[in-house]
UniProtKB/TrEMBL annotation, chain A:
Residues 568-876 form the Damage-control phosphatase ARMT1-like metal-binding domain. NCBIfam families: panK_eukar. It is an enzyme of class 2 (transferase). It catalyses: (R)-4'-phosphopantothenate + H2O = (R)-pantothenate + phosphate; (R)-4'-phosphopantetheine + H2O = (R)-pantetheine + phosphate; (R)-pantothenate + ATP = (R)-4'-phosphopantothenate + ADP + H(+); (R)-4'-phosphopantetheine sulfonate + H2O = (R)-pantetheine sulfonate + phosphate. Catalyzes the phosphorylation of pantothenate the first step in CoA biosynthesis. May play a role in the physiological regulation of the intracellular CoA concentration. Functionally redudant with PANK1. The phosphatase activity shows preference for normal or oxidatively damaged intermediates of 4'-phosphopantetheine, which provides strong indirect evidence that the phosphatase activity pre-empts damage in the CoA pathway. Hydrolyzing excess 4'-phosphopantetheine could constitute a directed overflow mechanism to prevent its oxidation to the S-sulfonate, sulfonate, or other forms. This is Pantothenate kinase 2. SUPFAM superfamilies: Actin-like ATPase domain, AF1104-like. In the C-terminal section; belongs to the damage-control phosphatase family. Phosphopantetheine phosphatase II subfamily. Belongs to the type II pantothenate kinase family. InterPro entries: ARMT-1-like_metal-bd_sf (IPR036075), ARMT1-like_metal-bd (IPR002791), At2g17340_3_helix_bundle (IPR035073), ATPase_NBD (IPR043129), PanK_long (IPR015844), Type_II_PanK (IPR004567). One of its GO terms (molecular function) is hydrolase activity.
TrEMBL record, chain B:
The keyword Transferase applies. It comes from the Eukaryota. GO terms for molecular function: ATP binding; pantothenate kinase activity. This is pantothenate kinase. InterPro entries: ATPase_NBD, Type_II_PanK. One of its GO terms (biological process) is coenzyme A biosynthetic process. Pathway: Cofactor biosynthesis; coenzyme A biosynthesis; CoA from (R)-pantothenate: step 1/5. SUPFAM superfamilies: Actin-like ATPase domain. Its EC number is 2.7.1.33.
Amino acid sequence: MAGRGDDEHDPILDEAKSSERDMAPSAPPGTSIHRSGSRPQLDLSKAEIQGNFEERDPTILLPNQSDDISHLALDIGGSLIKLLYFSRHEDYSNDGDKRKKTIKERLGLSNGNLRSYPVLGGRLHFVKFETHKITECLDFIHSKQLHRRDPYPWSSKTLPLGTGVIKVTGGGAYKFADLFKERLGVSIDKEDEMHCLVSGANFLLKAIRHEAYTHMEAEKEFVQIDSNELYPYLLVNVGSGVSIIKVDGEGKFERVSGTNVGGGTYWGLGRLLTKCKSFDELLELSQKGDNSTIDMLVGDIYGGMDYSKIGLSASTIASSFGKAISENKELEDYRPEDISLSLLRMISYNIGQISYLNALRFGLKRIFFGGFFIRGHAYTMDTISFAVHFWSKGDMQAMFLRHEGFLGAMGAFMSYEKHGLDDLMSHQLVERFPMGAPYTGGNIHGPPLGDLNEKISWMEKFVRRGTEITAPVPMTPSKTTGLGGFDVPSSRGSALRSDASALNVGVLHLVPTLEVFPLLADPKMYEPNTIDLSDQGEREYWLKVLSEHLPDLVDTAVASEGGTEDAKRRGDAFARAFSAHLARLMEEPAAYGKLGLANLLELREECLREFQFVDAYRSIKLRENEASLAVLPDLLEELDSMSEEARLLTLIEGVLAANIFDWGSRACVDLYHKGTIIEIYRMSRNKMQRPWRVDDFDAFKERMLGSGGKQPHPHKRALLFVDNSGADVILGMLPLAREFLRRGTEVVLVANSLPALNDVTAMELPDIVAGAAKHCDILRRAAEMGGLLVDAMVNPGDGSKNDSTSAPLMVVENGCGSPCIDLRQVSSELAAAAKDADLVVLEGMGRALHTNFNAQFKCEALKLAMVKNQRLAEKLINGNIYDSVCRYEPPSVSEM
Amino acid sequence: MDPKNSRFSTQISHLALDIGGTLIKLVYFSPNGDNCEDGSIVVGNGCSVVQGRLCFAKFETRKIDDCLDFIRFNILQHSGVQHTNGTARDKLSVKATGGGAFKFADLFKEKLGIVFDKEDEMHSLVCGVNFLLKTVPREAFTYLDGQKEFVQIDHNDLYPYLLVNIGSGVSMIKVDGDGKYERISGTSLGGGTFLGLGKLLTKCKSFDELLELSHQGNNRVIDMLVGDIYGGTDYSKIGLSSTAIASSFGKAISDGKELEDYQPEDVARSLLRMISNNIGQIAYLNALRFGLKRIFFGGFFIRGLEYTMDTISVAVHFWSRGEAKAMFLRHEGFLGALGAFTSYKDQSHSTELKPHHHTVERAVLKCSDDDSFRHIPVTANVNDGEAIECSINLV
């Protein structure tokens, strides 16, 4: 496949396939995952940024990119063309990995395919063009040969010219049908506009977790919609005109109203009055406007007083443009900014009001606004929300959609038969924001850059244009002055993009193998993040932490690639890209949807991968694993000499102590310069003095050992979510695993699918276990039973058969590549492993504190971590840095 | 009370004003002809009935001086009130409503010696409409497809109804009875928007000029029609014909034309349709909320212009599928002023307009710019409302 030819004959990979155990230490463990993972590469040859580089959002065309792109759908409106196309993943399941197979068999998974429809893995890209520049759009389609694909996603065969059919909705489906036939040789399959809007909105609301949000007084708040309680709702699509649709269910809807005063009116009138060249320019003007110079306010009529009897404040607009009547001014005497704002308020407010009146007719409480007029513009949304809130006296909610402009195109896409999209659930979608996202704002034009060199030079060019793009712009909360009387919208004064408040729309990765972790007590109520980053103080702190940690990370990453010039260049580009993300988020926290620490950390890892730092901590991990394995026998011996009770305590202490090895923690990185691993581990364990800050050890001990001579039954299966490589897993978690195995409990080690910091991955664990098994029979037998040592220590007939009490040790990947874990999106493998589990052990800051600290499980849960951040310690447990958390929770009693 | 004094104050109280953001509306009583001193006829109970006419006049608010002159020369002098500078009697109280009753109170006191007795705007509007609908036959009419049709209103079946007053802005009031009403909605897209935007877009100087223009225009030049999007075909599935406006001014987006390239007539027409249609739609939606079948439209924006009325009627008809009817009032522009006028009756019965007892004989269609105004020194638009012949009771 183009773009990754270098990897094609990688001997290391071939070797890895044939013999997991013998994987050379120098092999990049991430590489094979990278290949079999979710990232098809783009062909960037001849990629060019079209147009002038001084433009805000240069078009990026990738003329030779053609792999795996299966089909597209368009929505051609009066003003804009919205295009949506799908690119397929490579076949996921064909990894030929014996170990995995064994585990799958063990867990009762049949070949990874849980569903009857073809697994639709891939990505959805969102692109838009101006309708009057339709040739650009045709060129785009042509260059990517999008129109010559079989319209069914699981087939990628090229169709002969003149036979293709593409789904198109919007008025342009009629108007431009001939043009498409002529230029591309494809027929247009016209899809009904309303139908597309509705099915697009239904899909997005059901499939994307934080698709909808409210916007009141400059505050965005994401709303989680329960897909079972979605209907009925009112959908207001504000395009050139406005359609108001009552939606009662899948395919059940009615256009109940509409208005001709819409986006086209704003733009059309605005153009005539201000000479603006584009919609965005007009919108930007409004940011600096003051509508009171041209609108007649209640105060103007009442001599500055309110008409309070009927609830009208002095700043309420009595008559839009009413002041232009009585003043002897010409058009030229008014500021275009004021005119634009006055228009914007007039139209937004009117739309809000008519929508409210229609919602009222049908007793609907929820109104979703979509369409390109809104385009995430804060003031527009505030005005609409205000109108709805005011007229409904707070009874109804105006909500907006992140993919607002793409509802119709999404719906047209949905209308292809048998795409399997209908069945997708929110947990199967992962949205990624490529490194260009902070620069292009909400304007996606062309697919993300994929080629490394192209990415780097893109970064460099952007940075050369000025420093303004990386400098965070402080936020000024906008104020309101009572009824409809907004002040002038706060001007962000940012040259970063045309509308500072635009939301990004990322690339949607469809990963049908993801599932909700079945042991969550209440998946609907589950919130992975412990710290609420919508709190400004918290947000600023964590963004700063990430920002400060960046130079170390870059050093480590560059060193991991041998410190070459190329690696340095990539390191620089990564630093710039990630800084830009941080700056963007500092300015607009909701830019990428609801912001949580888990997403932030994941974004960082994604960003590293984009610049092909596959595993920045690889050498550190290997070194620490080696050092830890060397001292493991001594530790095991020490443990075996203890009484059961003392041993259990020492094991937990050991887990907590070993958790100090964490390259994600600034404090710990400083520590490493002061001593060897084993020294730090011993020192750390010796300092473990009970009671810990959170100390449920006694309860846990009672569960394990019983009390009053009663022997409790051992756990059937324990899921151990491991954290870091080296001492953490080897001196902390493995001995604990061994203790469970010894009691006849099956143990499943749950580790990351992709590298993140120095976290151990599922790919690395078998080697580590094999290393540990050399010194311990318990681990060896269990690992053999669990299929971890398939080719090793061939001793058939030994092991499991003659020891009925022994339990297997297994490894599964969790489906993610972040130091945190969102348990709504885990691998199907893990979900299957969870079926028989009655204990979940979460270890480490990322998985037990930053996320899941408050998570409730259907089974017992043990959360173990050392707090390596002072602020978090204060906030979470009212303690200090290096305090320990041992939280044991019985199964959450559910009323269901 | 000094009878002489009483008479003066009585007569001055025959004037009421509605001072809006754009226009000042005046209603005053003009006694009939050359009867005895004040034309009063003594009826039983010591009450006197004066025959005469209610006259209507209006001024632009920005030319308030014209209005002051008009009152000074045509009303105060006629009534025998001589103190033009407010030196002698400061107690002359006149009913006034609208925002200007607050804003210009000092001016009237200073220039004319008139003290405003402020009446609530909505209250006045409603009183005015109720008065008209109950007492003036053939006041209300429908207008559809160029057909004007008077509607006979049954007094006992008048309520509830929706009153839509289109001034600079628009107020929508649900009326349940005499003095029983609620402002339920409104919109800032009103007459002021039409004129304000119209002035900016066409350089028209006045409302009438703009309306005249709109009459000759073609909105298809600048509005985006359903057919423009669908390549000339209807979107019949949802009942939109190809000539329906999809987006007002939407064609201006892509034409690459400047303002100067459009005919002012077409711009005015688009604007008028946009605003009329919007008002009609919001009015209908509000009527629907409360199950009101009748919607009365008033306010100076309409001013009997057929095209405006037609657009509003079509909007109401379209959205209500013929269920609701848009109705218009012949005295549409003077509702507030009339209401203020009728509120005199609340004052110790010194004056009472008695519409309920058939004191209003008939309403004449005669315009009032006849001899009684020949001597008006300033120009005032007095031919908009039709004079109502009536009588009022004096103590």
